[in-house]
UniProtKB/TrEMBL annotation, chains A, B:
Residues 53-72 bind DNA. It comes from the Bacteria. The lineage of its organism: Bacteria, Pseudomonadati, Pseudomonadota, Alphaproteobacteria, Hyphomicrobiales. One of its GO terms (molecular function) is DNA-binding transcription factor activity. InterPro entries: Homeodomain-like_sf, HTH-type_TetR-like_transc_reg, HTH_TetR. Keywords: DNA-binding, Transcription, Transcription regulation. This is TetR/AcrR family transcriptional regulator. Gene3D superfamilies: Homeodomain-like, Tetracycline Repressor, domain 2. The keyword Transcription applies. It comes from Jiella endophytica. Residues 30-90 form the HTH tetR-type domain.
Length: 239, 239
């Protein structure tokens, strides 16, 4: 994060004018980082990690290559930041739902709708996350840079663990059948919500503007697949 | 397909000795093609299309690069053959189920179990098919070669259409709820069965030998998600 130069003054709160300047600089900086991450996810999703380039990301932004290299020394570093930023963002929204005091099945339904909606709204980001999980991006990198991606596995596991806990909680509260392999069910559950990642660009274009409706259909399919009764489904999806 | 040389003799059935020779040559040829396709699917799945090379496929086989180039002029041609051969094979098995005289829900259950089982048994092939569907492989190819991949889209659509028809048939026979968007349901249904493609290599390794059991769990999840009643599920999954 860039700071206003201290210019020999004692440390502490900068004078009012400088403080605002730093805040504006910081906000502009964040906005530009966000634009880079969005454009990079698009390029990674369209071309795959191996074929994508920082040049192309800069072209998509209408910025110079140097402006992007100023922040990311390599394509691997940019890929890792796209994935980490995206995973942290959706994980914090997921955890906010998981920590509520509602029944587990209600929180699971909202979590499923959140995930499916995010996949439809930010398909490029989720395709990029899927490539990170598959290991093909790491295979295309020199060993040192591949290590930078290894932390993503733990983030992804933490994310999926929230779904597994909600499924187990709903089974404890008898809103889902008991005695199931909740870990396996969680894996199937999240992958079913990821369904749009397998759809062609033409299919997705045809569904533009219907994201909310489709997210609910995906969540309904997954909650029903996990074993919710018709009475539970009616209650959860009437809200 | 190579043939024994005709050596000036009239056309027609070759003499017995030559006939056997040609048959053996043909069978060896097919076996070698199959070995190439299997190794190529593994390399494409591990590294992604853009980073994979014919060299690596040859190394995996313990064959020379020339032996592979003798059959495939380019990586794009090899990729297209892996996908087309794989899709034709599973489509013919799917159609054999779809054409039976059982109730649609029974055929749908078997089709779902077939697909999930094949994804678990030939994960590398299905990852390669997913890359073909996503369009990233075509983005990495020169335009002329990318055209060679465009036929795969139609094959994939035909495959998914079989599931959509079975879902519609099961709704007509009242084994699934009526009045649903069967095309959307079909897309979610097949993607849910593809769940293992999103699982990490470590997860898949831990499930080795349990393919049949997991295929049934996936099929159960998808059939239930599509709306089958508990009575229908009990009947279909007690076989």
């Amino acid at each position: 994060m860039p700071r206003a130069p201290a210019s020999g003054k004692p440390r502490g709160r900068p004078p009012r004018g400088e403080r605002n300047f730093a805040a504006i600089r910081g906000a502009e900086d964040m906005a530009f980082r966000r634009r880079i991450l969005t454009a990079a996810a698009e390029i990674f999703a369209e071309r795959g990690f191996a074929t994508a380039s920082i040049d192309e990301v800069a072209r998509r932004l209408g910025a110079t290559k140097g402006l992007v290299y100023h922040r990311y020394r390599s394509k691997g570093e940019l890929f890792a930041d796209v994935c980490e930023d995206g995973l942290r963002d959706i994980t914090s929204r997921l955890e906010a739902i998981a920590e509520r005091r509602d029944r587990a099945i209600t929180r699971l339904t909202e979590a499923a709708t959140l995930h499916a909606g995010d996949v439809l709204a930010r398909t490029a980001l989720h395709r990029t996350l899927a490539e990170a999980a598959s290991g093909t991006a790491a295979a295309a990198l020199p060993e040192m840079e591949a290590d930078a991606l290894s932390g993503l596995g733990a983030l992804r596991e933490r994310y999926e663990a929230v779904f597994v806990e909600l499924i187990a909680g709903a089974a404890d509260q008898r809103d889902l059948p008991a005695g199931r392999d909740t870990e396996m069910l969680g894996r199937i559950f999240v992958a079913a919500l990821d369904a749009p990642l397998a759809w062609s660009p033409a299919t997705l274009a045809g569904l533009a503007g219907k994201g909310g409706l489709i997210a609910r259909q995906l969540a309904y399919f997954a909650i029903r697949g996990a074993g919710a009764s018709d009475a539970t489904l009616a209650e959860e999806f009437s809200r």
